Amino acid sequence: MVGVTNLTSVDTDLDEAVQAADAAALAAGVSVREVSELAELAAVVDLYAGIWGRDANPPMTLELLRAFTKAGNYVGGAFEDGRLVGACVGFFHAPSEDALHSHIAGVSGDVLGRHVGFALKLHQRAWAMLRGVADIAWTFDPLVSRNAWFNLVKLAAHPVEYLPNFYGAMADTINGDDDSDRLLVRWSLRDPAVVAACAGSTSPALVAEELSAGAVVALGIGADGGPEPGPLDGRTSLVAVPPDISALRAADPALAQKWRLAVREALFALLADGARIAGFDRSGWYVVRRDA
């Protein structure tokens, strides 16, 4: 349960957010709640260390999580039969920005495919709305197709900035030696598209339709599986990413790096020129538009 169901407020959006979060947790077969006790915070540290392969240098420390919860920030956990199987951590922006930054989220490998991550994000949304927060922001690797689909379609978040090598070298089992480019997204919690997405109604982009309507391939996939740059002057541009960048990093690091640089060049240039990422096709294409 979200933990905010005993509300006396007549805020319909908040009530619906709570119901959506509870429904997502039920569908995933987990319970999602805030985490604040030391033993459970330690379990969050261990979960993240295992996911990112960083036992000696975990992505989050117990001391930092303890400080976050004491200061009123967000640490949420997904539990199955009392066992932590997913966690999400966020901290507040500057007061004038009215936003929460969702810094890290991860799910145990044995529950992948059950939409536990979706349940965590919807819990975080309801938690933030209860506190009067309008937006949640976070970053993700633009080369990871499944994350692009999850963030841009499943959650209906909006990309706002391309951040080259944002964290520097991360040297873990997920990122390897690759540059840590990230897309920064904003999740406007009461936006109608977000409300619809949280209720299970998504609006994915369809590349075939975009091509029929005159979209230009700004970055395609060559015959060798590598990136194939195209023109960046289209009213609507399509930018491809590899089907599985994690497997490509392991099998061919040099080709993975070519993809990193090619996607960076295309998306960074398009966004800097005033275009916006308007959607994502599940087959691995960003749809980027220039408004009239």
Automatic annotation (TrEMBL):
Gene3D superfamilies named among the record's database cross-references: 3.40.630.30
Superkingdom in the source lineage: Bacteria
Name of the protein described by the UniProt record: GNAT family N-acetyltransferase
Species per Swiss-Prot/TrEMBL record: Nocardioides conyzicola
